[in-house]
Prior knowledge:
3 domains, Butyryl-Coa Dehydrogenase, subunit A, domain 1, binds flavin-adenine dinucleotide, 13 helices
Amino acid sequence: MGRHRTRGRAVDPRLTEEQEAFAASVREFAREHVEPGVVERDRAGTWDWDVWRKVAGFGLAGLPIPDAYGGSGADVLTTGLALEALAYGGRDAGLNLSLGAHLTIGAMPIALHGTEEQKQRWLPRMASGETVGAFAITEPEAGSDTAGMKTRAEQHGDTWVLNGSKTFITNGELAEVVTVIARTDPDAPAGQAFTAFLVEADTPGFEVAKQLKKLGNRTSPTNELAFTDVEVHESQILGEVGTALWKVGFECFDWERTCMIASAVGGMERDLEESVRYAQEREAFGKPIGRFGAIQHKLAQMRIRLEAARLLQRQAAWMKDHGIEHQMQAAIAKAYIGEAAVASALDGVQLHGGWGYIDEFHVERSLRDAKLAAIGGGTTEIQELIISRTLLGG
Length: 394
Ligand SMILES: Cc1cc2nc3c(=O)[nH]c(=O)nc-3n(C[C@H](O)[C@H](O)[C@H](O)COP(=O)(O)OP(=O)(O)OC[C@H]3O[C@@H](n4cnc5c(N)ncnc54)[C@H](O)[C@@H]3O)c2cc1C
């Protein structure tokens, strides 16, 4: 469908019966195969290949990857539904982070910008879960300000030589291939200065320099990557030389904001459900705490945020699926959900009292996990910048 401009107000939030049934099946699968052991995995801070293989075996690793390359060709809305359902049923936000990154910024850039050879080489392996996708744009001194990246790629005949480092890279230590954005023209403006390279993990000079310890999402590995004279053949360029920031990079951020953010919505729903149950069961002063106005207020606010978050994410996903200009709606969804997820997780912890602070209760982990939604894939402040620029025409 062609892209066209519209104010996009007429969004139908209903799902088809197939979508509802699919989401229900993912929730059930996740409760059975992902949720068990999540507290221990979080405590240990470990990635679990067995859980990943189950997720891949259930067909989630290839969702939006085109059928021709072993995926399911799912649209953005359906892929988001799966992430939401997995987060709800599995309560393993780290797994959701790794799967979300694998799909949206690992596989999709290759599906959208890859040559036939690149797609044949990597997409079937990603769709089956044999390898996990990763995308590296952030650097120690350049995150929001992507144009400040210093990693360099210099051309020597048909080979490019990369030097520099990347940080906060989800799945960095798992991936067989990482899409790395590097500066290929030191003087050109940002739109013409950066190129994406498919760098294979066994290339000499490529090093997983560090695994970073995190506040939350601990079951997902986050790495620093170092590149020292890494030689990459020109056939490994993804897209066109010079255009990576606006094309590959923009597409990645767009997928993160319209689709990957759905994971936070699933977490919010499960926390609300657990909080309602706790409010009904826990007694203080001779009655269930749910009879206190202060607790009722928290539950109501959690529900309001959940509904708004879900509608905003689905609106943005639906608009992307229909080729409707949605920069503003994607930024609104990301900004709102990032903050709402934290606010609701805080309410969930408070409502659980002392138990909310103990890691046997999932809300403790939820609070630590939720904060990432306001940081990764573009911080809340950056989303606000996009929204205000669109409003002001700047
Ligand atoms: C767990 C995790 C996983 C991640 N996964 C990946 C990944 O797979 N690949 C990848 O490339 N990156 C990844 N990131 C990086 C992430 O996208 C960045 O951390 C994020 O974009 C913010 O960049 P920064 O950390 O450099 O913060 P900075 O850009 O230094 O921002 C610091 C603060 O300043 C604010 N700020 C910056 N500029 C402005 C401005 N113009 N106006 C107002 N406020 C501003 C920010 O909002 C923030 O509050 C990940 C990060 C984390 C924590």
